[in-house]
């Protein structure tokens, strides 16, 4: 079985991917700087290096481990921070990815899988559900950086014959998602319910395509073979507005809390929904989790975290003070 490097392997999606790869008997190397990833997410059977992907020491890992496949998930993922500090975003996402790609060429990596983004790349002026052939119109430095990496991959493929697959993800949710750092709306809502807070919604009619983390991992594993190349959307093809999402989570949690509304955030994307017909035809992939099933498993995980003391109302409130209350609020419908 090929030895696989997973960057960001201590993070939300990355750690689930590492677990699945190890289950399939792959040797897995994880590189993560733990800026958003967590040590408790790390699979003990994976070999771990705490390192930023832009660090020159990355080449030592490639040389030592004799890697064959790279799954690149490490990223500065905060859209708001990318707007406030585009240089920081570019250093983390673009420069870090280039450092990774240069090592892939030098050490003759057989396959590169890049976890990109759907909504942030396509923007609002596209057909719904959105096909991979739609024009990319990112409106944030985060989306621009993701698109830039995709274009660099095209270059490295033509110049150095590096095989690659790009997976453009819809809105991912599931166990281990951070309600502060990554701030997916499902995680934010679950945390608000755990801490007995109202569910705050900015606007409410915005739609998103929610795809469960395990389905994303399934798509990545199907993309591992060298012959699988190109760009694929990973989504359900179904829109859910944020008001309805709040109602579903409250129902699944079997609790009663108020849903409160605030105005839309200016510049916020209004609709996002991805067609996954291409990957269904090419790789026979389709999501196995509908929204109700995925939300139930996510809510159960948040409850277990509370039971075992990993979610504390006091700690949550302190953290929100440190990172500023409107940080999570802004990203409610990221």
From TrEMBL:
SUPFAM superfamilies: NAD(P)-binding Rossmann-fold domains
Gene3D superfamilies: NAD(P)-binding Rossmann-like Domain, UDP-galactose 4-epimerase, domain 1
UniProt domain NAD-dependent epimerase/dehydratase: residue ranges: 4-235
A Pfam short name: Epimerase
InterPro entries: Epimerase_deHydtase, NAD(P)-bd_dom_sf
Superkingdom, taxonomy of origin: Bacteria
Family label: Belongs to the NAD(P)-dependent epimerase/dehydratase family.
Protein name (record): NAD-dependent epimerase/dehydratase domain-containing protein
Source organism of this protein record: Candidatus Kuenenbacteria bacterium RIFCSPHIGHO2_02_FULL_39_13
